[in-house]
Amino acid sequence: MSETSITTPSGSEKGRYNVKKVQNSSMFDDSPIAGETGDEFQEDIERTKARAGEEKFHRLGWKRLTIVLIVEAIALGSLSLPSAFAALGMVAGVICSVGLGLLAIYTSDLVGMVKMKFPEVAHYADAGRLVAGRFGYELVGGMFVLQLVLLVGSHCLTGTIAFLNITNNGACSLVFGVVSAIILFLLAIPPSFAELAILGYIDFVSIILAIGITMIATGIKASHSAGGMSSVPWSAWPKDDLSFADAFIAITNIVFAYSFSICQFSFMDEMHTPKDYKKSIWALGLIEIAIYTITGAVIYAFVGPDVKSPALLSAGDLISKVAFGIGLPVIFISGSINSTVVGRFIHGRIFKNSVVKYINTPTGWATWIGLIAAITVIAWVIAEAIPFFSDLLSISSSLFISGFTYYFPAIFWFVLLREGSLFERKNLIHLVLSSISMIVGLIVLVGGTYASIVDIRNQYKHGSVRGVFTCAPLE
């Protein structure tokens, strides 16, 4: 037998193993080799499984990274942007969509720089540890878990709404909620992001078709109206009665559409060539900017200030059913990847020093499936039990996404990445952009939270708060 030193693609010390090659035996052969004690042979088996696990979780290239980022970032929520344009007006809508998108690409680049400089960072919480020690790890880890679990619940409710729309409210919404949760659970079982990337191609085609159908349908509807498209009363400027809360809800809808960096550390940890991340974030960022800006501007121009959210509801009863049907893969694939990311974080933390974390043993698979089931059930219960769940999600997004996307990456540059004086020439561009990111993040943190609380208060005032665990249709 010979010994080989294996170093993981991340280059981290804790990923290095001395693996004894066992000649003429299967990878997981349970027969000890002559001269070895049982304990020694068991160590060989565990090292071999660890090596296989490292290989399994480092198969992601930049193209597949782009796909999983698209899956995580772009969902039917993109069809809420026309209503944001209706509130802000065409000019401000386009400026916010393009400007916030470019800023998100920059902050995502900072996240990638942190991963390259500190390859041991596997999840966002690990970066929090670098900034503020154990406190930073626990704080950011808690934010990370809570936000992703709530996002899973959001996709569960969106799936329920889609099924209800397709079937004309043909069943109790709780039934469709359970069906949605089961689908989310099943799609989240594959633990490797390289495996999920295969579903990502279906996801991408699905959202493009759903958006395309909605655009065509609203365009045809507008052209057949009295006066044609020229009669659609869209405006370049914000609507006249726009309140601060409504304006901020519109802006935060755009901000949250660019929240892909929350999972970037987790995805990059599986890359076989991490330095290629720049290709992925630029590809994703430009695709997102194009999709969001075109979707928001075109559908708003076709429908006008009365555009619904999601916009496919403005396409007519039949077309909305078709679009919802085509969009089902987006709802469930994009939702399930949130379960996988938070599951990998929790599972890796529980079994940090065990081969179980590689999910290639019976114990590994049993604990993984149990964890994903628990995450899905908790997400479903929270989504059904809280009568203002959508606004709860908005509050958590204002509190957390503002940090994950904007001010945390800015802090990373100031604390972890900056070299030399703040005002050295090489640092000026980063100083300006990181400062802008910090300001934008803090404004969204305060303004978005306030706007969401005001919206909850208004819902209770108008009696529009839905019931808990209800069979009634969800809006």
TrEMBL record:
GO terms for cellular component: membrane. It is a multi-pass membrane protein. Keywords: Membrane, Transmembrane, Transmembrane helix. It comes from Trichoderma cornu-damae. Signal peptide: none annotated. The keyword Electron transport does not apply. It comes from the Eukaryota. The lineage of its organism: Eukaryota, Fungi, Dikarya, Ascomycota, Pezizomycotina. The keyword Transmembrane applies. This is Amino acid transporter. It is found in: Membrane. One of its GO terms (molecular function) is L-amino acid transmembrane transporter activity. Pfam families: Aa_trans (PF01490). Its main location: membrane. The chain crosses the membrane at residues 61-79, 85-107, 139-164, 170-189, 201-222, 242-260, 281-302, 322-342, 363-383, 395-416, 428-453. Residues 59-453 form the Amino acid transporter transmembrane domain. Belongs to the amino acid/polyamine transporter 2 family.
